[in-house]
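Q: Got a minute? One more chain.
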Amino acid sequence: MLELTEITPVEVVILRMSRLSAVDATGVVVLRDAVRRLEHRGVTVLVSGVRDEHRRALGTLGLPAFEHTPDAIEHAREHLRERGVLP
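A: Always. Here it is, folded:
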């Protein structure tokens, strides 16, 4: 997670959660810290593929969540168009 927060230059990060097997309180805290670091740098964070059993725990992060990754990618593209990064 620390490596994720150090990458530059990035405008949007999509966290693909569909293969996540378990989420505990510690994992949510670590993820929350990484998301805060990214957002502090102006990076938009999106999640995709959150399983039903993880939805409640990850929902506490308050991130835009998408059922499928292509939907998250399209949202990211639109976001980048609005910011003038993409034509």
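A: Residues 1 and 26 are 13 Å apart (CA to CA).
Q: Perfect, thanks.
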